[in-house]
Amino acid sequence: MEREKLLDTLIPRAWEAAQNAYVPYSGFRVGAALLTKEGKIYPGCNIENSAYGPTNCAERTAVFSAVAQGDRDFAAIAVVGRFADGSPAGGDGFAYPCGVCRQVLAEFCDPDDFLVLLENAGGERKVLTLGELLPYGFVLKD
Ligand code: THU
Question: Whose CA is nearest to atom 9 of ligand 1?
């Protein structure tokens, strides 16, 4: 799929997924839309927990859901996030995948081919490869 079409397809699906975020502690809603190479889209949202540590990020929710349903070949993921009042994440406002999610993506996705699509609360977009986000990720076994 060409890049503009990819963005226009996946970004709205990620914002839609963010509506299901369970975020009573941070109030920060994250949504993900994970595209398989066959064209299936798995949504994910962050799911928080009163013990904090068990909280699951939107990206991992999407990946784990896909893997649990037998899909492991991924082309791209869109990730978006904002606070419930519409205000953006810190820094430049993009909800970049955390380090743990980058490592989880690296388990299944090619660092040079897999694309991470981002949109901040202001509507700016950015496309990165997984390798740009996670250089020198840990690999136990090829
Ligand atoms: N969060 C994600 O869902 N994805 C990330 O990559 C970074 C952080 C969630 C976890 C928590 O529910 C909230 O954002 C604030 O950290």
Answer: 57
Distance 71 CA to ligand 1 centre (A): 23
**Does the pTM of the predicted model rise above 0.90?**
yes
- The pLDDT tens digits of the residues spanning 38-64 come to 999 999 999 999 999 999 999 999 999
103 CB-near residues (< 8 Å, 6+ apart): 134, 137, 138
Tell me how far apart the alpha carbons of residues 61 and 54 are, in angstroms, rounded to a whole number.
12
Alpha helix positions (H), the chain: 3-18, 58-68, 99-108, 130-133
Alpha-carbon distance of 98 to 116, in angstroms, equals: 12
Distance between CA atoms of 102 and 96, rounded to whole angstroms?
Answer: 9
